[in-house]
Design brief:
single chain; alpha/beta; Rossmann fold; Dihydrodipicolinate Reductase, domain 2; seven-stranded parallel beta sheet; 18 strands; binds NADPH dihydro-nicotinamide-adenine-dinucleotide phosphate
Length: 403
C-alpha cells in the first residue's frame, strides 16, 4: 500500500509532491493529475531533478467523476490526495467511493456560487465511507490541519480539557509585490472578506471582516497586527471538543494588503456572481485571479518567516490547576525555496498533506469514516512534522491570553 494519486498542480501540490517523492518507502508510486497537464509535467521535471524520482502525469478534470474513477483504477491508487480547489471536494469523494480509494484534502467543500465555509456537506459522507471501509481525512494542511493536531496533542499530553483556544497565523514574508495572496487568490479573498465568526459560550459571534485587530509578538517573526476572522477548524474543533468555551482564529495582514482588498471589494472585483462584460459573462473574482501573481510563482522572491500555532488554556493533566500552552512552528520562506522550490505557505500546507497521507498509508489513521484532524491520534504525525521540515515548539505561558 503506497500508490498515491495527487489531484491539482498548483503551489501546494508542488511542495507536497516533492515531499512525497522524498519518502519513497511510504509513497511507492506517485501519479499527478490536473486540469492543465503541462503544470503536472513541470512539477514532475523538478522532482526528477531534485529527488531523482519519476512521477506519472495525466490530464484530468476533477469535476468528471467517471474520468477520476477510471484514473484511480488505472493507477491502482490506495489514496487520492486532493490539492485542487475546494469546489472539487465532493466530486472527488464520490470518485473515491466508487473506485474504492482513501481520500484526503486540505480545505472544506465550498459551493462555487456561495462563499460558505461549512463541513456539513462532507460530514454527510461519513456513513458512506464507513460502509465502504474507506478513510476520508478532511483539512490536512497547516490551518486547518496541523493547528488541530496541535490541539489534540496538547489534550493528549498537557491538558485534560481545553477551555479556550486561539489559532494564530502570521506570515512575515515579503515578496516585493504591491498586492499578492499567499495561496489561490480566489479562495484566499473569499475567505478573508467573509464575516469574522468565532465560537463563544455555545454560539457563533459574528463581526464584520477585518474590524477586530490586535498586535502580537510572534516568535521568529516579531510584532504584527493580526485580525479576527473565521476559519474552518473553528467549526470542527468546537464540535469535536465540546468543552471549548471560546475558539478564535487570527491572521496577520499588512496595511497595504487590507487597503487593496477593501478597494477591490468596494469596486466589485471580488464578486463571485456572474456579470456581463461586453456581451460576455465573467465572474469578477475569477478575472481578478487571472490578473494577480500566481502565489507559487513568487516563491523565488519571498523572504522572511511564517509562524502558525495555537494558544490553549485548560485544566492541566497533572492536576495542578489551569495551564496555558503555546505550540507553534516557524517556517522560513527561503529555506523552503532551497529545499523544494516553494514559498512557506505552499510548504506549510503541502508537507502536512504528505504527512496526513502517510498516516493513512502507514495504517495509523486507516479508520473507515470521515475524519477531521483533531479526531485522530497525533503522535506519529507530530514526530513526522519534526523530521519532515516543520519542527514545532511548545512552551507554557504565565496565564490565558489577555486579548
Ligand atoms: P492553486 O490555484 O495554485 O492550484 C490549484 C490547482 O488545482 C491548479 O493546478 C488547478 O488547475 C487545479 N484545478 C482546479 N480546478 C480543477 C479541476 N476541475 N480539475 C483538475 N484540476 C483542477 O491553489 P493552491 O495550490 O494555492 O491551493 C490548493 C488547495 O490548498 C486549495 O484548496 C486551498 O484552499 C488549499 N489550502 C489549504 C491551506 C491549509 O493550510 N489548510 C493553506 C493554503 C491553501 P489549473 O492549473 O489548470 O488552474
Amino acid at each position: 500500500m503506497g500508490k498515491t494519486l495527487v489531484i491539482g498542480a498548483g503551489g501546494v501540490s508542488h511542495a507536497a509532491v516533492h515531499k512525497m517523492a522524498m519518502n519513497p518507502e511510504i509513497f511507492t508510486e506517485i501519479t499527478l493529475a490536473s486540469r492543465t497537464k503541462s503544470k503536472c509535467d513541470d512539477i514532475a521535471k523538478s522532482v526528477k531533478e531534485r529527488v531523482g524520482v519519476t512521477i506519472r502525469t495525466e490530464a484530468l478534470d476533477a469535476m468528471d467523476v467517471a474520468a477520476t474513477v477510471a484514473l484511480i483504477r488505472d493507477t491502482g491508487a490506495d489514496i487520492l490526495v486532493n490539492l485542487a480547489l475546494p469546489y472539487q471536494d465532493l466530486k472527488l469523494m464520490d470518485a473515491c467511493l466508487e473506485a474504492g480509494c482513501h481520500y484526503l484534502d486540505t480545505a472544506n467543500y465550498e459551493p462555487e456560487d456561495e462563499a460558505k465555509f461549512e463541513y456539513h456537506w462532507q460530514w454527510a459522507y461519513r456513513e458512506k465511507f464507513e460502509k465502504a471501509g474507506l478513510t476520508a481525512i478532511l483539512g490536512s494542511g497547516f490551518d486547518p490541519g496541523v493547528t488541530s493536531v496541535f490541539a489534540t496533542w496538547l489534550k493528549k499530553h498537557k491538558l485534560g480539557s481545553i477551555r479556550q483556544i486561539d489559532v494564530l497565523d502570521a506570515n512575515g514574508g515579503d515578496n516585493g509585490q504591491a498586492f499578492a495572496t499567499n495561496f489561490n487568490p480566489e479562495i484566499n479573498l473569499r475567505e478573508v472578506l467573509a464575516d469574522a465568526k468565532h465560537w463563544e459560550g455555545g454560539e457563533w459571534k459574528v463581526t464584520p471582516a477585518m474590524t477586530h485587530k490586535v498586535e502580537f509578538d510572534f516568535p521568529g517573526v516579531g510584532p504584527k497586527n493580526m485580525y479576527l476572522m473565521y476559519h474552518e477548524e473553528l467549526e470542527s474543533l468546537s464540535t469535536h471538543f465540546p468543552e471549548i468555551e471560546r475558539a478564535r482564529f487570527w491572521m496577520t495582514f499588512g496595511d497595504e494588503y487590507i487597503k487593496h482588498a477593501k478597494v477591490l471589494e468596494n469596486v466589485g472585483m471580488t464578486r463571485i456572481d456572474p456579470v456581463m462584460h461586453n456581451g460576455v459573462e465573467i465572474i469578477p473574482i475569477q478575472f481578478l485571479k487571472t490578473l494577480l501573481p500566481d502565489p507559487g510563482g513568487l516563491a523565488a522572491l519571498t523572504k522572511g518567516k511564517a509562524c502558525i500555532g495555537d494558544i490553549a488554556t485548560g485544566e492541566a493533566k497533572d492536576g495542578t490547576g489551569e495551564q496555558t500552552w503555546y505550540i507553534y512552528n516557524i517556517c522560513d520562506h527561503e529555506e523552503c525555496y532551497r529545499e523544494v522550490g516553494s514559498q512557506a505557505v505552499s510548504y506549510t500546507t503541502g508537507v502536512p498533506a504528505m504527512i496526513g497521507a502517510a498516516q493513512v498509508l502507514k495504517g495509523n489513521w486507516a479508520r473507515p469514516g470521515v475524519w477531521n484532524m483533531e479526531q485522530l491520534d497525533p503522535d506519529d504525525f507530530m514526530d513526522m512534522l519534526n523530521t519532515q521540515g516543520l519542527p514545532w515548539h511548545v512552551r507554557e505561558l504565565d496565564g490565558p491570553v489577555e486579548f
